[in-house]
Amino acid sequence: MSVTMPVQAVEDAALIRRSWREPEQFAAVFDRHYDGIHAYADRRLGRSLADDVAAETFLIAFDKREQYDVSRADARPWLFGIASNLIARHHRAEVRQYRALARTGAEEPGEDHADRVASSLDAAAHRKRLAAALAGLSGADRDVLLLVAWAELTSEEAGRALGIPAGTARSRLHRARKRIQAALGRSDDERS
Length: 192
Description:
Elements: H1 12-19, H2 26-45, H3 47-63, H4 76-89, H5 91-104, H6 113-118, H7 121-136, H8 139-149, H9 155-162, H10 166-183, H11 188-191
Helix pairs in contact: 2-3, 2-4, 3-4, 4-9, 5-7, 8-9, 8-10, 9-10
């Protein structure tokens, strides 16, 4: 008699492997990670493109699920890598959004009142400079920084997501953080 584990206890790799024969099993991976991918795309590109990027991420993942490295239990880095590649296609829109935010300091027009209220006061005080600094980063540095900051991946996972060595990801993250800190005018004393 076999015991079936609840979906939450099953690793992503096992679900993906099962989906090779039973495609409906991939729905559990979608359910588990869609909100995180969507939130990341929303923060990078705004609501107008987040739905499309999140949906396309999972379409691509489903189509390429047989190529997934099942030795990796957690599919988040793989999925965020797909999303980052899609976001790179929208790079111009992202940079325009950061530059507009840097000029005006205003929120995106479609933001909910609850989202504005939930934003921290400290972030609001530095929003223009932060947006300008993000717009000024190279796409490669910005991708690593935002995967770590917004998608909550480790630098190693961000490297895996982007297909770069962990050391390269750490270097890009360090460089991006230094530029952001400089743009915000923080001294070494304030960072300690």
